[in-house]
Structure formats: C-alpha cells, structure tokens
Amino acid sequence: MNLSNLQPAEGSTHNQNKRLGRGEGSGKGGTSARGHKGAKSRSGYSKKIGFEGGQMPLQRRVPKFGFTNINRKDYEGVNLDTLQLLVENGIVQDTVDMSVYVANRLATKNEIVKILGRGELKAKLKVTAHKFTATAKAAIEAAGGEAIVM
Hints:
Low-confidence stretches: none
Helix content: 10-25%
Strand content: 5-15%
Radius of gyration: 33 Å
Shape: elongated
Mean pLDDT: 91
Number of strands: 6
Distance between the termini: 79 Å
Largest sheet: 3 strands, parallel
Order of helices and strands: HEHEHEEEHE
Oligomer: single chain
Number of helices: 4
C-alpha cells in the first residue's frame, strides 16, 4: 500500500463528474462545457416556461375566446335504462347508492351523480343521488320507488 493506490471508501463519494471551469488542463476549462455564445452560455440563464426559442409559443398561438366558470358543477349522468340493466343483471335488488355507482364504474367516489330520464324503469328502486331530472324522479316514483337527494 502506498500513496498511488489510495482511494475513497466504497460508497463514500457520490459525484463522479469533472469539475467545470478549473483551467484548460482539466479538460473542462474555457467555455466550461457550455459551448460558444447564445443564451445558454450566459450566467444567470433560466429558460422561461413555454419558451420555444423565440418562435411564437403554443400558448400564444392558440386562439382564446369565452370564459370558464370556476363555480361550474359537472354532474356524472346515469340514465334510468342503465339502472334497469343493473336490475336485470342481478347486480341491484332494491337500493342504488353511491357505492353501486362506484362499483359498476358509472361514477367515481368524488363525482356528483345526476339521474337522467332516458329509458324506462320497471323495477321498484330506492335511488340515492345528488340530483334528479323531473322526468327521472317521476319515472322512479311511478315504478313505486323512491328518489332520495343526497
């Protein structure tokens, strides 16, 4: 063992990169591996989000119109014929609630469910949802069921 074969303990060093800008003899002097000229060679350079090298950025190229209402509520619609199909397949007997919608992938646990009036419901069901259309509510009650608003 002598000075020529000393090396750090296994796992003690992490950075194996060459140090930049420490003279020509290091192999990474001069431009410090930044190339010649241009914005990326300058100190303090940071690329702006969405910058496309001076080309008109996509965010500015795309036309914009209208507005988005931040208070809008998006309902996940479930039709009466879908509920009837669940009854026919033996998935539902008497009650339909959020757990049924989630289990059958009609809605996710965080979505707001609205029962819509397409199709007809023959089964007597106790349906629980956030909202009902007037036709859906009438059809559920006409079949002898119950429409419960969450």
